[in-house]
Amino acid sequence: MSNITQEKEKIVVGLSGGVDSSVAAALLHRAGYDVTGLTLWLMRGKGQCCSEGMVDAARLCEELGIPHEIVDSRDVFEQSIINYLVTGYAAGSTPLPCSRCNKAVKFTPMMEYARDKLGIHKIATGHYAKLNFNFESGRYELRRAVDDNKDQSYFLYEVGQEELSCCVFPLGNTTKIETRKIAAEFGLATAEKPESMDLCLVEANGSMKAFLDKYLTPIQGKIIDTKGNVLGEHDGTYHYTIGQRKGLGVASANPLYVIALDPVKNEVVVGDRSEAHDRECTINQVNWVSMAPTDIPFHAEVQVRYRTAPAPATVIPLVGDRARIVFDEPQFSITPGQAAVFYRDDLLLGGGLIESKL
């Protein structure tokens, strides 16, 4: 368990009602912390992170004998996540809601609520990531968790130094299998709870398509190849994402992938896998995490999707909060709206949102 001391200290633990946050709270409670559970009410309706999750979180707090706070965060979730998603998909990108949610909905609001309402200056979550303070650089350093399959540092790249200074990640040195074993040892009701396998909005709406169709009107358009030949029709560019292969509705002798989305022309461009590779992209809204901001190009391993392996690349800082990334080798499915996060070994240096491929 990373960066946990035996000192009795007050701490707020974000509880979703899942096994990970439950074990984080139980471990901290056992370590001698004065723990308060905090659950954010993000949206109405079904979904493990909301109505069902609040019940399970409340049950956990009762089991541990700790206070439980519920904060109505539905307005900020709608403004920061729902509107962000709808606007992004309508513009032809594929937004990454989880990193934005961590920053705008979870960590910063949790930190402010804990400090301003409860007088508590430490917060913890069940994220799989490691955190340490580098006295030489004076910065908090975010690192990958020991469990490669569960590492969530990619989704934490937007979290700032102020928030990290308050954070504890009890599961950074714990594998998922170990987490479930610990939950069973504690006798927690969440020990065998199924893992949430999809985005909360997808769980609540059945699919991303169903969610988006509530806000956007499908407009039929053309599916074309890279030479402009019409291959079929689509029912809305926002139903597609770069790199998508299945569900295109186009017959072809060879597999086709989505290469580009043009909501202005209302076209979906497809091609073979080789055409879905790019070597360069630009990113914006760069957040420097473990390294201080720099204007000097540097080499790193850059990860462009959560489940994509990081690849060697040169990061070239640009004016403002932008950067250009040049990969050593072309990469598949570089997607506007997703995050490009740069690492050095397990150390998360920083990251930003992909704005365009070059």
Task: Explain what the structure shows.
The chain is α/β, with parallel strands linked by helices and 358 residues long. The chain has 3 domains: 10-203, Rossmann fold, CATH 3.40.50; 219-271, Roll (SH3 type barrels); 277-357, Elongation Factor Tu (Ef-tu), domain 3. Helices cover 26% and strands 30% of the residues. The protein has helices spanning 19-30, 51-64, 74-90, 97-118, 161-164, 176-186, 200-205, 208-213, and strands spanning 10-14, 34-41, 68-72, 123-124, 129-134, 139-144, 167-168, 221-225, 230-234, 257-262, 267-271, 277-288, 298-303, 311-317, 323-332, 339-344, 347-357. Strands 12-15-14-13-16-17 form a 6-stranded antiparallel barrel. A hairpin with a 2-residue loop joins strand 16 (339-344) and strand 17 (347-357). Helix 1 (19-30) crosses helix 6. The protein is globular and about 65 Å long. The mean pLDDT is 92.
